[in-house]
Structure formats: C-alpha cells, structure tokens
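re the bet — no i am not wrong, look at it urself. input seq straight from the record:
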Amino acid sequence: MDRRKALLIVAAFIAALGTLLVFLYVRGADNRADERYGAVQVLRVVKQIAPGETVEAAQAAGKVETGSVSRKDLLPDALTTLDPIAGKVATTAIYPGEQLTSAKFGATGAATGLTIPKGKLAVSVNLSDPARVAGFVNPGDKVAIFMVSSDARGPYSRLLLPNVEVIGAGTTTVVATTTTDSTGAQTSEQLPKTLLTLAVTQSEAERVLFASQNGELAFGLMNTDSQVAASRGVTSANLFQ
C-alpha cells in the first residue's frame, strides 16, 4: 500500500469517527433536553383553594385538574393523585396555576390563617345543616344571605345580602335548641351547627351580626348564572301573591 492510499484511509477513518462523535453528542443533547423539558402529568389548581378547605371539597368543586408541566418546572413534592392528601385540608391559600403539593395540606384544623380579600374583614356565623344548603357550602363559594325573623307586623323572610364570599369553614358541633310553640310548650332538640366565615365590608358585617342575633340566617348557594336582587321580602300578608 502506497503512502497516498494510507493517507486516504486514515482521513476516511477520522471523518467517520468525527461523524459518530457528532451523532452521539446530538443524541445526548436531545436526551438531556427531553429530560429537562419533556412534559409530565401533574395535578394543578384551576380555582383558588381556601385555607381550611378539604381536598375532597376542592375536587368536588372542580378546583383540581390533571395538567402537564415541563420536567424542569416540576416541583419535588408535586402530586399526580390525591391519595397522599386524602382527608386533609389546605393550610394556606392555593391559587390557580399552582401545582398541587402535599406540603400545603395538613390535618383538619391545621390551617395557618384566613386569606381575607383586600378591603374586607372576616365574620363567622353558626348555621344548621339546612341553613348551609345541607353542607354543600364550602370555602370559595358565593352565597346570598337570607334572614328569617319577626317584628311587630309578624314573621317575615327577606334577602339580607345578595353576594358574599365564604372564606372558611369550621368544625360541626351539636347545639341544644329549645323552641316554644303558641301554647307555651317547649321542645328541646340537638341540632348540628357549623361555623362558616364570610368576607364582608364593615356595613355588611354589622348587618350579618345584627341579623344573626335577632333572627335566623340561611345561605343560598350561588353559581355564575344565579340571579339575586333586593326585594320587599315575604310575610304572611304576601306569601301567596
């Protein structure tokens, strides 16, 4: 073999080796990019979850959905299933777009505090199961508040506030309630009641607190299409009008 052929063979070998090295580098770069940027499935929050809200309530309200994020953005304790936090409550507000993580959930009563909207204050009322829509009212919901009471003209029911946000739910306790009928006979019964916390203005807080001490409150659970407007209320005189 002459020198020229040897040089050609060496050059071809070097070219092939270079091509192989470039191929391996590109494939490795692609793999590294896939590992870093490849999409992975994770649970994400689509509606704000309030402190104290159970994960089951958030799921029932459609606040959690499965989505995808790049691997580089995946949080270490991001969840792909609700099983690890079953029965727990949010310990802080969790906002739309956040990945659902176990670090923001704890045992019932472990919430660190309320998230009160700017310009509002929080007040709590104790409601029976029927008055809180059989337990379907949860933090984050909007409610209309009605008052049932009586005055010199007789009993009445009337809209108190048309649109109030519920920001917290406490524990349910059994309260002894005594009622007296028209003959003076008294009846006692044990009724479960639950503390619900509202975000209201000062004026609204004054109305809610006065009404709760001078009558019975009941919530009407609202959706985006609910229509609520002030009215003269209902009395025995106009009940069937």
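see?? The two ends are 116 Å apart (CA to CA). told u. also The CA atoms of residues 77 and 223 lie 33 Å apart. so pay up
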